[in-house]
Amino acid sequence: MKNYNPESRKAEEFINDGEILETIRYAEENSRNIPLIDSILEKARPRMTEGGVHCAGLTHREASVLLACDIPEKVEEMYRLAEQIKQAFYGNRIVMFAPLYLSNYCVNGCVYCPYHLRNRHIPRIKLSQDDIRREVIALQDMGHKRLAIEAGEDPVNNPIEYILECIETIYSIRHKNGAIRRVNVNIAATTVENYRKLKDAGIGTYILFQETYHRQSYLELHPTGPKHDYDYHTEAMDRAMEGGIDDVGLGVLFGLEKYKYEFAGLLMHAEHLEAVHGVGPHTISVPRVKHADDIDPDVFDNSLSDDVFEKIIACIRIAVPYTGMIISTRESREVRERVLHLGVSQISGASRTTVGGYAEEERPHDSEQFDVSDQRTLDEVVRWLMQLGCIPSFCTACYREGRTGDRFMSLCKSGQIQNCCHPNALMTLAEYLIDYAGEDTKDMGFALIERELEKIPRDKTRVIARQHIKDIMESNRRDFRF
Ligand code: SF4
Ligand code: SF4
Fold first, then answer.
1. Closest ligand by atom to 209 CA
2. How far is residue 423 CA from its own chain's centroid?
3. Pairing relation of β-strands 391-393 and 52-54?
4. Would you tell me which of 231, 321, 396, 407 could form a disulfide with 55, CB atoms 3.0–4.6 Å apart?
5. Which tens digit of pLDDT belongs to each residue from 186-225?
6. Which position has the higher pLDDT, 297 or 65?
7. Which helix (H) or strand (E) holds 54?
8. Per-residue model confidence as pLDDT tens digits over 353-397
């Protein structure tokens, strides 16, 4: 396609409208082409190699054919394959995190978000460092170890210095046996220099949702403010990587535009990062437009059914097997239950999307960014995951061991990361159970740990993990990791 170039640094060339439209046309044309669909599924299957399990992944065109296909047996096959890939690389582990809203001051005009500048009836709140201390203690008291901080774009109220100060405060708080060990950051597109400052502050992943890859819709949905600049926003991940951040998280807000367009755009963005920087995205998030103050999701006529949502998740898992996938409490327990086994590797639990919502339990939901569908406590979510046969993990080891970017990806691609993830999940779950869990959760959790310890293939690793878990149970020693 004219001007399409995944290696280009120009948004219009790596997210090329012509290529996306041609991909959608090709996918529709081949949506019932069984030999082609079979060959795509075959290519994506996990294979045993000398270095471990390997998956080839798919191009955006191949994955789009799967997404377009509605032959029931083939769709079933896709789900089985997604599950197989998820098992091969992520096992039954689900990493837990919580969002922390720092400030809802924002100068942008995003029409789907209640924090848009013209919303005059939402209370504007910015957390002080003391407020943050209270929020973080409340989060630590729940058992969280991994946060994603969020703030609107406002150079006066939320400048980079404020974000950096917040990160420092968060990392500095030690309350009982608690600690926040990884802070991921979701703030507006910024400069290489600012990304370098974030890197130096020790952030985990830099997350920025594209919202929509469709340029015209993007311009209409972001009518005012710096975010109106499609190119600056779309090229943000390149600047982040230039600034030294090698773990970046992509995402679109499904429901704003036609999902087939977004799906192809998302995968093209991942291909671009791989082509230019040698590392694909660390995570992909799959939020859907939800109700909030001043926002009615029904005005966006591209909303997705749960069935389509499920298929998108399966197809992403098949296309980019090494990329973590995140689902938030925007989704109900029922939806989360349907998609967990298809490839989701991280979920949020007990989230408050209100600024200051953790310390102030009784805080009205008047400053929420979106309605939370899944309102359960973290303990309930942990128990529910275990009932579903998953291991809730509070692991943050990689970034702290310097396993980021291509170092992380090479371990991930060889399947060796499993040797760390599995025992780390068990040790961090043991910490959670001892320090924060209710009695029922504790009983269920230790029984699960006992069963899972037996599955660790290397004798040496099993013995060390068992000893660390014993130490956690019998002392205040924490933070063991492989
Ligand atoms: S989506 Fe982000 S940038 Fe847009 S109005 Fe909301 S907080 Fe501001
Ligand atoms: S070992 Fe690394 S990849 Fe595995 S769960 Fe922990 S932080 Fe994630």
1. 1
2. 22
3. unpaired
4. 321
5. 999 999 999 999 999 999 999 999 999 999 999 999 999 9
6. 65
7. strand 52-54
8. 889 999 976 555 667 777 788 889 999 999 999 999 999 999 999
Q: In degrees to the nearest 10, what's the CA dihedral of 153, 248, 323, 285?
A: 0
Q: Which atom of ligand 1 is nearest to the CA of 106?
A: 8
| Residue to substitute in 119, 153, 294, 330 for testing ligand 1 pocket (most ligand atoms within 8 angstroms of CB) | 153
Instruction: Output the CA torsion 207→213→215→221 (10° steps).
Output: -70
Instruction: Identify residue 182 by its one-letter amino acid code.
Output: R
User: Which backbone phi and psi does 22 adopt, to 5 degrees?
Assistant: -65, -40
Q: Could you tell me which residues are beta bridge partners of residue 391?
A: 93
Give nearest CA residue, ligand 2 atom 5: 421
Contacting residues for 105 by C-beta, under 8 A, at least 6 apart: 115, 124, 126, 152, 154, 156, 157, 158
Angle, vertex CA 462, rays to CA 458 and CA 467, nearest 5: 155
The token duo for 383 is 């128990």
Ligand 1 pocket residue status of 106, Cβ below 6 Å: yes
Ligand 2 atom at minimum distance from 482 CA: 1
Residue-averaged pLDDT of the chain? 94
Question: What is the model's pTM?
Answer: 0.96
Ligand 1 centre distance from Cα of residue 262 (Å) = 19
Q: How far is the CA of 24 from the centre of ligand 1 (A)?
A: 29
Ligand 2 centroid to residue 408 C-alpha, Å: 9
Atom of ligand 2 nearest to the CA of 393: 5
Kindly give the interhelix angle for 17-29 and 60-68, rounded to the nearest 10 degrees. 40
Give the number of other CB atoms < 10 A from CB of residue 396. Answer: 22
- Give pLDDT tens digits for 425-435: 999 999 999 99
pLDDT in the model for residue 49 = 83
Sign of CA dihedral 24, 27, 28, 29: positive
